[in-house]
Design a protein that fits this description.
heterodimer; A: alpha+beta; three-stranded antiparallel β-sheet; B: mainly alpha; two-stranded antiparallel ribbon; 10 helices; 2 strands; 3% strand; globular
């Protein structure tokens, strides 16, 4: 009897629980779905029509703009991603003008003399800083753990594992330690004439300039081992991958640098002391004869490729599995976009002028020489250069204005939806392509000081010295307002300096006769900011007449 | 006595809660009850040409015809549907070439009616697989032929299907689950359904 009671209670409990369960499930799942009664009725009606042989046209051939907006906003969650920044900086890392290097700092002062120098040279900066003090790419682009990546991961995880091995949180940090390397090689020409204590010296480099992204062998191996890269490069040989990356990640050019003129006068000259002063003028003659010799050719004003987020989404939704050609077109568009993003990055950091970016420069120059005896002496130089402002195309990160994103994405009004789509398209492109604007750039002044101990023997001359070079922070003026929508400070190059040791050794014939001089020169940076640590090696071939 | 009554009430309530929990964990939801499949991909394709209610209805109807509505299968001169043959197979322990030939024909028929749908889903198999997985989780189905089938690599479905379906019992189970899944998926896409209603009302 007791057992029966318990059994009945249990049964009642199960019936009760089952009814609650069904109700709860129905309530939980019925939200935003087709009414089950209507669903069954329509299915039955469809079946009846089919039995009668009535053929009906399948509905929905085009995705409505309003549906597309809702898919992108509500399901993909694109808005928080578009409110993040991809770039942290948009400045073009600067370089020190070849004419300013202590390796090429000699001026001729011997009276009534005409000399010609040719310096075959090689200069390398192994790690050009992207910012004031960081040489890693992640200081320029958000590649590590940060909001942008987190948003991207959040979106991808919604569809995981459908997107296979695509895990940005694992792939992008692999490139975080990528560095920018700069190499210059060529001939530095100089001619000098002196007449009655007046000196006119003209210098002009002809050289090859290359900037590339650089990873160590260990870093490259790590990238190759990542599943996504392995999948992407499957079927391609190492050479093909290398060639593809070289085209998009290396910027190079060959041409003339800036013309440097020294106009000097020596007002005082004695057996042990000489003072020479005057002006230096740098003419913006830099011009590339050829670009993209090894790598790609980049232009700061490259057009953004035809890509639209909404068109891509529409292509996927309307053409997937239906129109093979449309799908191929979409994947090609995505590939082109990825390379265009890489090209824009390379154009920003690797596309630099062979000179002072078309800025004329001038300023005073002073050289003093003290000879303790015929063998030992001290030679020092001091110069200040003022770089005249000029128009330059520069990249700017757009400021994120949260209020802009405050829109009615749920609107079923197709006109409003079309505007929303256009807005999302624009923001997606702005995220990956910083805006390019012609602006007035006022480069900071350049101060250069060097001092060297000289050691002179008949037929041999050597020098070892210290060089300090400094350039002030640049300023930017917008030609066309408003500038408020851009993060201008992120586009500016900070003040830069270099401390160098330099030296030379050369066979030498005193005086100014018809002689030939040959020597070896070089400099190396031991401390720097903004421009990196470089070294230069040069041979000197000199003819005196 | 009062305490005893209270204790009984408490025990009754506890048993009820326990039963609710057990049902929640263990019981699969009956297929005549529609559920909304919660999946991001499904939300995206709702209202798009990738998710046409008309196509879904066509496929469901064709599957139901094969399964229960029409006698499309010939076995030893008699006409049957899949359900009838599954019952006959169980009752009479049918084996041999004759029933295997009919099974092969049934599988071929299924391939014909699902071909256009599979062609449309081509390239999106992994996505569909995860939708089926979500559906199975929500329906508390832990193992099924449909789940196994959805895990097969793209283009291999028919070959794998032939290997998996060894008799009419498994074919019936598969078709019932597929029909159930398609109905849930269609019911989970209100935008597509609305567009279908608008198109058919014209």
């Amino acid at each position: 009897m007791k057992f029966k009671k318990i059994y009945l209670r249990l049964l009642a409990a199960f019936v009760f629980a089952n009814s609650i369960n069904s109700c709860l499930l129905y309530a939980a799942n019925n939200d935003d779905m087709v009414d089950p009664v209507e669903f069954e009725a329509m299915l039955e009606q469809e079946q009846m029509l089919k039995e009668k042989g009535v053929q009906r046209k399948a509905n929905v051939d085009k995705v409505k703009d309003s549906d597309l907006v809702q898919a992108l906003v509500d399901v993909v969650g694109i808005v928080p991603l578009l409110q993040k920044q991809l770039y942290t900086r948009s400045n073009t890392p600067p370089t020190r003008n070849l004419n300013d290097l202590p390796t090429f700092n000699t001026v001729c002062t011997a009276n009534n003399c005409f000399t010609i120098n040719v310096f075959p040279f090689y200069n390398q900066t192994s790690q050009v800083p992207f910012t004031k003090n960081s040489t890693f790419l992640n200081s320029y682009v958000h590649l590590g753990s940060n909001n942008f990546i987190e948003e991207l991961v959040r979106i991808i995880q919604k569809f995981k594992p459908e997107l296979g091995e695509l895990k940005p949180q694992e792939i992008l940090p692999l490139f975080a330690t990528a560095k920018l390397q700069e190499r210059k090689a060529g001939l530095y020409f100089r001619t000098c004439a002196t007449y009655n204590d007046f000196t006119l010296q003209i210098s002009l480099p002809l050289y090859y300039l290359e900037r590339n992204f650089f990873l160590t062998d260990k870093e490259i191996s790590r990238i190759k081992l990542s599943p996504f890269i392995a999948q992407l490069s499957a079927g391609s040989s190492d050479d093909e991958v290398k060639e593809l990356l070289t085209r998009h990640l290396v910027g190079d050019k060959f041409g003339l640098g800036d013309l440097r003129v020294h106009a000097l006068y020596t007002p005082y000259r004695s057996e042990c002391y000489r003072l020479t002063g005057g002006g230096i003028f740098t003419f913006p003659t830099a011009n590339a004869f050829k670009e993209g010799l090894v790598g790609g050719s980049f232009c700061k004003k490259t057009a953004i490729p035809p890509f639209s987020l909404s068109t891509m989404a529409r292509t996927i939704l309307e053409g997937f599995g239906v129109d093979e050609e449309l799908w191929l077109k979409a994947t090609n568009q995505l590939k082109n976009l990825a390379f265009a993003i890489l090209d824009r990055l390379t154009a920003n950091v690797a596309e630099i002028s062979l000179g002072n970016e078309s800025h004329f420069a001038f300023g005073p120059f002073l050289e003093s020489e003290y000879n303790y005896n015929d063998t030992y002496g001290l030679l020092s130089q001091f110069s200040i250069q003022y770089l005249v402002e000029g128009k330059e195309p520069r990249y700017f990160i757009r400021r994120i204005i949260p209020a802009e994103f405050d829109r009615d994405y749920d609107s079923t009004d197709e006109k409003v939806a079309a505007e929303n789509l256009a807005f999302l398209d624009r923001k997606a492109l702005e995220l990956v392509f910083p805006a390019v604007k012609d602006v007035n750039v006022k480069p900071g002044p350049v101060i250069d000081f060097n001092i060297a101990a000289t050691y002179t023997l008949p037929y041999l001359r050597a020098a070892l010295g210290y060089d300090f070079w400094w350039q002030g922070r640049e300023k930017i003026e917008f030609l066309h307002p408003p500038k408020e929508q851009f993060l201008v400070s992120k586009a500016l190059n900070d003040s830069a300096y270099q401390h160098k040791i330099f030296g030379k050794i050369e066979t030498f014939v005193p005086g100014c006769e018809e002689t030939f001089v040959i020597g070896l020169r070089g400099d190396v940076t031991f401390a720097s900011q903004t421009v990196g640590k470089d070294f230069t090696l040069a041979l000197n071939f000199q003819w005196n007449y | 006595m009062k305490k005893m009554k209270t204790a009984r009430k408490v025990s009754f309530f506890a048993i009820t809660l326990l039963a609710t929990f057990m049902l929640e964990v263990a019981a699969a939801i009956p297929c005549n009850e529609r559920i909304k499949i919660v999946h991001a991909a499904l939300q995206i394709i709702d209202g798009t040409p990738l998710m046409k209610t008309q196509d879904m209805f066509d496929l469901i109807i064709d599957i139901n015809k094969l399964l229960i509505q029409e006698k499309l299968l010939d076995y030893k001169g008699e006409s049957y549907n899949v359900k009838e043959l599954a019952e006959k197979e169980k009752k009479e322990n049918l084996q041999g070439p004759a029933i295997q030939n009919t099974l092969s024909y049934a599988i071929k028929h299924f391939r014909d009616i699902s071909a256009s749908y599979l062609e449309k889903a081509r390239g999106n198999k992994a996505q569909m697989g995860t939708i089926i997985k979500s559906w199975a989780d929500q329906r508390k189905i832990t193992s099924s032929l449909l789940l196994d089938w959805s895990k097969q690599s793209e283009g291999q479905e028919h070959e794998e299907f032939k290997k998996m379906v060894k008799n009419f019992r498994t074919l019936r189970e598969f078709l019932e689950q597929l029909s159930c899944f398609l109905k849930d998926m269609t019911a989970s896409c209100p935008k597509s359904f609305k567009a279908y209603k608008e198109a058919t009302s014209k």
